[in-house]
Specification:
Bound molecules: zinc ion
Number of domains: 1
Structural class: mainly alpha
Number of helices: 5
Radius of gyration: 19 Å
Strand order of the largest sheet: 1-2-3
Largest sheet: 3 strands, antiparallel
CATH architecture: Orthogonal Bundle
Length: about 150
């Protein structure tokens, strides 16, 4: 069994995720974004709502909030990024920031960065727990099968 906890948190990956604090870098991630004109979820609005584009083969419109790590896909042209963010992750620190995400003091930035790092660790731990539970269930099945055949 392997939990692969180190794999997704390499220094390179950590740096890339830290850089997503910056609006222009989040905006630049929306290279192949399908919604660009005459719609609510343009790259500019997505980036302003805290999202960056992280497409996969199965989910080409997958995005992630750099703060709460919430992943969303299945976007419709009329979806409003900030409203969707609020609906799916009401406790996100960005949602509860009572000002524009980019308009913050250094102190606010540092507080938010602590929250972002805590959220990231929680996500990694959650993924590892799910993988462990999955492996434990599989091992239990195999043991029960062995016991039956004794
Ligand atoms: Zn969020």
């Amino acid at each position: 069994m392997s939990l692969n906890m180190g794999e997704k948190t390499s220094e390179d990956q950590k740096y890339k995720e830290f850089m997503m604090n910056t609006y222009s870098i989040r905006l630049a991630s929306f290279v192949d974004w399908p919604f660009t004109e005459d719609c609510s979820c343009t790259p500019a609005k997505m980036a302003a709502a805290g999202f960056y584009h992280c497409p996969t083969d199965q989910e080409p419109d997958a995005v992630k909030c750099f703060m709460c790590q919430k992943e969303l896909d299945g976007w419709e042209p009329n979806d409003d990024p900030m409203s969707e963010h609020k609906r799916h992750s009401p406790n996100c620190a960005l949602i509860n920031l009572k000002k524009d995400i980019e308009d913050k003091t250094m102190e606010e930035f540092l507080k938010l960065e602590c929250i972002r790092q805590k959220n990231k660790l929680m996500k990694v731990a959650e993924t590892a727990m799910k993988e462990f539970e999955h492996q434990a269930a599989k091992t239990r099945e195999q043991l029960e099968l062995l016991a039956k055949n004794l």
